[in-house]
């Protein structure tokens, strides 16, 4: 998370993981959370690794960018990426789909809507967010 206009925020190899970005154009503040699983298994996980889970990481992202940079929730531009489907027949838990649905649920609970998304499919993604503009570049990577 940063408000330095020359910075870029990156995350690599989003397969079934989901990245949610939040950008405040008025404050030029940007943040991202890279969630691995939909929700914590134990209360200890919720405390120790809140950013690891969509259910806890998405609210943490929004709360932090608003508190740290003085952004108002309604001015945030939200984008989502990732949530790849695993190979057919091997995706019995559908983690990518669950991550997408849980991140959307967390955003809805906060009264936020996704402005842009690049979700699902069978390609891993690396993303880079420019702090100055909020623009997100997506680099697709086939999994072999």
Task: Give an overview of the whole structure.
Helix content is 26%, strand content 33%. By secondary structure, the protein is of the alpha+beta class. The protein has a single domain (8-142), classed as 60s Ribosomal Protein L30, Chain: A, CATH 3.30.1330. The strands form two sheets. Strands 3-2-4-5 form a four-stranded mixed beta sheet, covered by helices on one side. Strands 1-6-7 form a three-stranded antiparallel beta sheet, with no helix packed on it. It starts with 7 loop residues before the first strand and ends with a strand. The mean pLDDT is 94.
Please tag this protein with its features.
144 residues; alpha+beta; 60s Ribosomal Protein L30, Chain: A; four-stranded mixed β-sheet; three-stranded antiparallel β-sheet; 26% helix
